[in-house]
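Figure 6 in text form: structure in, sequence out.
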């Protein structure tokens, strides 16, 4: 059992480092948003507005998974995420089917509270948030145009790479502000780092 799960983790780690998995993960998150959108039939009248709170819920979900899952030493993603911190230009992503598994689990949990149709639209918004996160995170590292256009996000995330205990929000910055984990050029802890760079 122990060796089997170790083998599975090794397999997932190997998959996480493949470029095809990175692109497939991006495509899968877009299709997940689309599938949830039409899962219970095409939304009628203003029902589609459930997508909006779902999209907004992505920010707290992203912050929580980044802070308490990717940065937790006990998490199976800790090593892979550490690799992204050291080599931010490498194409790394969780295995492409993870978002669908999380989507199904969230559906099963939340359907006890929210009726199916609004819930699938809400989850469509969350999946859209994940797609947006995938795009913005990738381009913040690779595109100077995006770095200029979204300079507040670029500076925020660039500081996270240097000071991993701060700035856990990637597509947003407000949660770090509210939860006391924000660092800026003015408040960063180690000024000597910038002098050497
Ligand atoms: Zn990054
Ligand atoms: Zn991180």
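Output sequence:
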């Amino acid at each position: 059992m122990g060796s089997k799960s170790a083998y599975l983790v090794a397999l997932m780690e190997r998959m996480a480092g493949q470029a095809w998995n990175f692109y497939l993960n991006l495509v899968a998150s877009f299709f997940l948003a689309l599938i949830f959108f039409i899962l219970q039939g095409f939304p009628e009248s203003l029902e589609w507005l459930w997508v909006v709170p779902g999209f907004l819920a992505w920010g707290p979900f992203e912050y929580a998974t980044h802070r308490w899952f990717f940065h937790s030493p006990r998490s199976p993603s800790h090593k892979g995420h550490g690799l992204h911190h050291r080599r931010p230009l490498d194409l790394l992503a969780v295995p492409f089917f993870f978002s669908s598994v999380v989507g199904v689990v969230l559906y099963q949990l939340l359907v006890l509270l929210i009726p199916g149709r609004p819930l699938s639209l809400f989850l469509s918004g969350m999946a859209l948030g994940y797609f947006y996160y995938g795009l913005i995170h990738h381009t913040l590292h690779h595109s100077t145009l995006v770095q200029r256009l979204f300079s507040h996000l670029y500076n925020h995330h660039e500081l996270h790479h240097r000071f991993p205990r701060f700035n856990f929000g990637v597509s947003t910055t407000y949660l770090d502000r509210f939860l006391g984990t924000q660092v800026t050029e003015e408040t960063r802890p180690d000024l000597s780092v910038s002098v050497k760079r």
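Caption detail: The chain has one domain: 2-196.
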